[in-house]
Structures are given as structure tokens and as C-alpha cells.
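Hi Q.,

Before the meeting this afternoon, I wanted you to have the zinc ion prediction in hand. No need to reply - just skim if you have a minute. The sequence and ligand are here:
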Amino acid sequence: MSLIEKQLQVQEFVAISGQKDNTISVFIQSDQQDKLIGTENLWAVPGLVDIHTHVFPGCAAIGSSADTVGVSTGVSAVVDAGSSGWQNFERFLAESVHPSVTNVYAFLNISPDGLVSEKGELADLRRISVAKTVECARRHSRYIKGIKARASVSATVDTGIAGIELAKEAAMKAELPLMVHVGNGPPAFDEVLDLLGEGDIVTHCFHGKPGGIFLEDGSIRPQVVAARERGVLFDVGHGSASLNFSVAKQAIQAGFYPDTISTDIYEGNINGPVFDLVTTVNKFIGLGMSKSEALLSCSVVPAQILGIPRAGFTLLEWTDRLGKYFDSDGNAVSFRGAFSAKYVILDGLVFPL
Ligand SMILES: [Zn+2]
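Predicted structure with the ligand bound:
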């Protein structure tokens, strides 16, 4: 069934769900108070926001459609993290932002064509234009909420930190946050952290590669602690290679919670290990986060970071089912209890899932 066919009016939702007429207004009040309300099994959450996705199907082969990873899975707003740059952003608008029911935003890649060239997008810094990136971000400020760069050797090749410095310069000029992908250096994680300030975002914070948030003695890297103290944000960005259960569990046990839970979803991981945002949230509840903390970090918190209006509500059902979940490194955990998305209410329409 297509999304359009599934659209129902709010009154029909009330009839289907058996809720009384005033239920919707109760949810709205709850949203305004920044509180999550739930009965034993049904939770109403301000519209889920996935702050790291790839929803530019025209971009190489990796992008998913925004509605496939968005409203169809209970998510009302997605941020495309750097699939496009200033050269192809208008195509991204036409192909992804405008046709989608899901609200779509972007972190504009410092690479002029985003991730179209797939790997090594920061290998030749002569391609980078800070001025054109800033100009594009200003012109499309309704949709562009940050700048993106990949700080791993597959992107930088032999240019080290220089491309990330250009991205930071563009972000400062555009007065936007910088989201940096971290993975296998160079550049080293500490070098990247030293560049970042309040509101900037480290994505893939719980990857299992060398040089992550923990030192070899098991303590949290001092630069990570200092970065968090000055307001740098840490995002999950699960992806195909960037969530390790042992690292995430160690972090949660140490009280180092992610600021935002996101998927880094694209065609290569939508059939596992990522699947969707709610599955990613279930993993973090299984690893030790409370339901409320996990849900806030994929709804209210990312909406605040992005400065976007809250978009509707997601109704989630908590059931006792036993689930087996995989991280990006093939490790499995099983635990009982999981959310599943039941309805999205967006722009006055109800989408049963
Ligand atoms: Zn990504």
C-alpha cells in the first residue's frame, strides 16, 4: 500500500485506536511540555528525528528514499548527512526534499559533490570551496542545518586534518554546526576533537575501530571529556561499520550517554544490521539506557540541536518480545522488550504503520 493510500484523518485514528477524542490534544500538551507520556504499552513521542541518514537516491548507489527510512518507519524528520554538496544540492532538493512526506533536512558536505565520488572526497583540496559552500548554506537555510565532513583516511587519503579545517571554517562562516564522521585516521581523533566547539557533532561515537573514545586502559579519552564539557555533541550514527556493542555498553556503564541516537541508514544497511531508527533505539535500551532517555535522544534533543519545529508525533508500542540484535561488527545481543512504531501523526494526517 502506498503512503497516500495509508493516510487517514485524525478522526479515523481515534476510531481505530479506540482512544477518546481528547487523546490527541493530550499528546499535544505533552509535547509542549517536553515530556513523554505513556500508558503501560503505548508511548506518544514528539515526532522522531534521525539526525544521520543518507536519503539522496541519485547519489552514487547508497541513498535510500526519505519516506522509506522516514515516515514509513515512524520517523517524521530525517537529516541527510553530507550526501550532497554545493554543486548538487539543488538536485537533492528536487529529488529528495520536495517530493517527500517526511521532513527532510541536510548537513551540506564540504565536498562539492557530496559523496557522489564515493571515496576520497577530501583527497584533492583544490576541489573545496568554502565560499560556495557558505553561500549555498545561506541560500537554503530552511533546509541546511549544518556542514558535514568525513575525518577518516578513506575520505582524506593523505591530506590529514586540512579538509576538516576547511569544513570548520565554512561552518563558522555560515554560523552552523559541523558534523564530523570519525573512524580510521588519519586524522587522529584528538586532532579532530580539538577543532570542534559548542554545538558541533561527532558522529559514529561508538565505533569499534582503533583510536575511539576509550584509551587502552579503559578510561575515556581526556579530549572527549573536555569536548563534551565545552558543548560538543556525540551522535551514534550506527551505519554498516560504526556501532560496536562493547564500546557502547562500556560508555553507557561509565555514564557517557550519546546526545543523539541516529542510524546512518542507507541502502547498504537497511536490511541489517541497522534496519531503522526504532530498532537502533531498542539496541540502546537493551544496552542500558532508560526508555525515556533513549526516546528523547531521537526526538526532542535532535529537534533542539537542529532548531527545527517539532513535526507531529510518533506512537510506539512497547511489547515484551525477545529480540536478537547485531552491531556493525557482527556481535549479537539478545534481550526482552522492544518498541515498535504504530502510527505517525504528521501535518494532521495519521499514518498507520
Ligand atoms: Zn553517514
